[in-house]
Amino acid sequence: RSKSKMPNQPIKVYYLPPSPPCRSIIMAAKVLGVELDLVLTNIMEGQHMTPEYLKMNPQHTIPTMDDSGFILWESRAILTYLVNAYGRDDTLYPKNPRLRAIVDQRLNFDLGTLYVRYSALYVPILFHGDEYNEESAAKLDEALGWLNTFLDGQAFVAGEDLTIADISIVVTITNLDAFGYDFSAHENVMKWFERTKKALEPYGYNEVDAAGAQILASFMKKD
Ligand SMILES: N[C@@H](CCC(=O)N[C@@H](CS)C(=O)NCC(=O)O)C(=O)O
User: Fold this and answer.
1) Which of 24, 50, 61, 108 to mutate to test the pocket of ligand 1 (most atoms within 8 A of CB)?
2) Which of 5, 24, 121, 136 is the most exposed place for a label (fewest CB within 10 A)?
């Protein structure tokens, strides 16, 4: 029965190993046991700007998914699709409206706040060699404080079970950890990070997520 849940052919995902949103897709697919056909797309060499790529995704972002001709981008939309289409059960993305709403809130928090503030601080450092900006750092730390509060008295970001919200958010936290960010002020976040790493280790967390973050960290140390 579980076989009918699997895609007819491996789902294509256009990706690059260090890309944070790509890493969340690969991790979720591994947890779901869904086979991916990973297509290396080097955005540093403009492989996302070819006419073929733009026809598929005019917004030219990675990750982009092609599931037997069904094209989707925006990593969090891909995460929800993968669980809806191929999840053997709904623990990663609960069907219960209120439980699902909390997962959605966390995913939107990541997309609109946490990852935005992370990027505001680290994109200039990683890709433009800029100095550490204290104002951006304070904004990021404020968002980490909110995450810390969400985690009060619960094991995972949306409740007692690991969901796609953890898989999405842990990518950002893994980057911060690789960059040597000090989150000792956010005790719940630190404990959750250890718990989530442990939960994802059997699915290749070290090889996919932590290794990708190390590639990003190496950009920082280059000059
Ligand atoms: N919110 C998007 C972000 C996607 C994104 O911006 N990806 C970057 C790489 S990490 C990219 O494709 N950059 C090249 C470009 O936007 O042209 C998602 O989660 O999928």
Assistant:
1) 61
2) 5
